[in-house]
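quick one: magnesium ion bound model?
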Amino acid sequence: MGRVIGIDLGTTNSVIAFYEGSRSEVIAGTNGDRTTPSVVGRGSQGEWLVGEVAKRQMATRPQQTFYSLKRLMGLRFDEVADITNKLPYEVVRGEHDLACVRVDDKPMTPVEISAMILRALRDRAEEMLGESVERAVITVPAYFNDAQRQATRDAGKIAGLEVLRIINEPTAAALAYGLDSGQTKSIAVYDLGGGTFDISILNLADDVIEVLSTGGDTQLGGDDFDQAIIDWARQEFLEQTGVDLLEDPMARGRLKETAERAKVELSQSLESHLQVPFVATVDGVPQHLDLTLSRARFERLVQPLIDRTLECCLAALEDAGMQPLDVDDVVLVGGGTRVPSVQRAVEELFAKMPNKSVHPDEVVALGAAIQAGVLDGTVEDVLLLDVIPLSIGLETLGGVVTKVLERNTTVPARRSQIFSTVQDNQKSVNVHVVQGEREMAVDNRSLARFELTGIPAAKKGVPQIEVTFDVDADGILKVSARDLGTGVEQEVCVRDASNLSEDEVERMLAEAGERHEEDLARRRRAEARHTAEELLLNVEETLEKSLGRDVPTAECDRLRELCERVRDALENSVSSFEHDELVEATEALQEAAHRFADFIYQGSH
Ligand code: ADP
Ligand code: MG
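yep, here:
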């Protein structure tokens, strides 16, 4: 069996790495790219584009270009209301109430679309490593709940990958650092990505990494820094021209691109020019956006966002029972940590220089690859302990939550609790599983509901129902309830609540396979066209040059005829039938061209 690879499926960028020798390494694409934008687009011909090519059409085809999908993964439509109005593409309610995106009037799950990114990464790995890749470790933000982890695993499956382990991104980052250190210390991993902020407090001792606490904000990242610039630019433009750029999806897309570029530039320079020509028209007169943003102003715009990350840090420290000064090492992860004022703020909070020796954009994938190495036996002596990010409990009388597994419990974990009936002769109990920190069930995320029936008639409070929560090493939950009197047991697959069913995943897997075939066919067609066009140009040039030389006219005519046939085939080569004709015509022309060349060279002797 081939090796296991590590994948950082990021909100903004994804990275793939593998373990070899005694270190992990990023797998770059043929063009040298080490990261792939987590963007999937529908091209003008209905084809699917992934990565850089998809990102490039973001401004021109905003409604068909899907980015930040990770923010929607595994969530219900109602849970993403605050995100959707920021996205230029349409988010709709799909089956099981899942948040989906609209593709050609049909809802498509973020899981399926993310699978295309994973598939592209897998293809890259297979191409570069020259072997088939079927198993992976994928990272997720520490804050991901059960449904989001399930969704990530499903995406892997649809991409044809067996996901051996889901690990938290900060844990992966710590792994990338921890292996070499061999000493005992506490570290804080501050990860500011495109869409999420995670802070984790970890303990490293003798190659054992323990997560003491995690925290963060799933709705805070570099995108919000871009948004701060967009809001500012929109306001400035509104004052200058009276035009609201956010009303036009196309302008919105172009502004987003420009804002991000300005942000990145401001990590290096003290000033950036935002220019978007022909962004709007007023009374038929084209308007251009042309603004200058200083680093100082930018820092003021984003300070509230940075402050929010610091509050999360303090909360996570408190959970770990620590003060900022107790942290020995601070690790910066994610492209967002390249912003100088972010680095400054982190340095001030922890009163020490943050560690940046491993590339912040790659560190998570590198850590995932180490975990992959552990799973396929290449790396030894690393034990990874993760925690449950949010408490899991049951709704009990009056809608109150009784927590069974507290947040930050180390996984794998198993806990049971005995519950009883609330009425005399009650025959069944409803078990409602929720995840979150709030007191009332309605304020938390509902994970699953099921009913345990067949309880023998008894006075209230007499029956004993044991509910067991089992969280595996991936942080994925199984719940079972057992009537201790009768032994009747019921297990619930939490995925039923809001996730895709096994059947749906299988169907998507088949569809993805077809799509891959289709893409291959499309690529073959494009290559055939390219070959034909090249050959045509080449032959026409040869014909021109051979004018007046001693070449039989019949040969020239034959060649011209074949050129004509290729040209016709090129014009018609849309369906696969004509594609065959194109290939045949090209071959015939190729052969004739070779014969023709023989004539020319013989003639020149
Ligand atoms: P994710 O983990 O969400 O995929 P990354 O770690 O790749 O994200 O970080 C992406 C974010 O980092 C984006 O918002 C991007 O604009 C930002 N970013 C990348 N490079 C820089 C830079 N030089 N300065 C500021 N922000 C940057
Ligand atoms: Mg990341």
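The mean pLDDT is 87.
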